[in-house]
Amino acid sequence: MSKRQTSSPRRRSIPKPRHVARSSLSQTDVTRGEYNRIIDILNERNVILNALREGLAGLQQSDEVQFKRIAQIQADLDGLRRDVERMLSRNSGAGDRT
């Protein structure tokens, strides 16, 4: 099986967050180093979430543009169908007269 190719050349990978080590429930004190590490991990996760939000916003914008294009094409197609039906009805009526 071949790998699926992306349609977007500027696709960037979103990094995986680091895991926070579990501490015992009886522990009531936290060292400054542990606290700083947890804050760093939370900040990294925030960066990841922001990247996901940006990607989602880009996809939503792209979808909106595509749906507008589809609606315009459908409206044009409906107009062409009406014109063709009108021309065919005129031609069939003219053929009956002769």
Spatial gap, N to C terminus: 64 Å
Number of strand elements: 0
Mean pLDDT: 83
| DSSP strand content | under 5%
**H/E element order:** H
Largest sheet: none
Rg is 30 Å
Q: Would you identify the regions where 5 or more consecutive residues have pLDDT less than 50? A: none
- Count every helix, treating DSSP H or I runs of 4 or more residues as helices: 1
Silhouette: rod-shaped
| Secondary structure category | mainly alpha
Helix content: 55-70%
What's the quick description here?
By secondary structure, the protein is an all-alpha fold.
Give an overview of the whole structure.
This protein is mostly helical and 98 residues long. The chain is rod-shaped and about 95 Å long. The longest helix has 66 residues, at 32-97. It has one helix at residues 32-97.
Kindly list the characteristics that best describe this protein:
98 residues, 0% strand, mainly alpha
Write the layout of secondary structure elements.
Layout (H helix, E strand, L loop, with lengths): L31 H66 L1
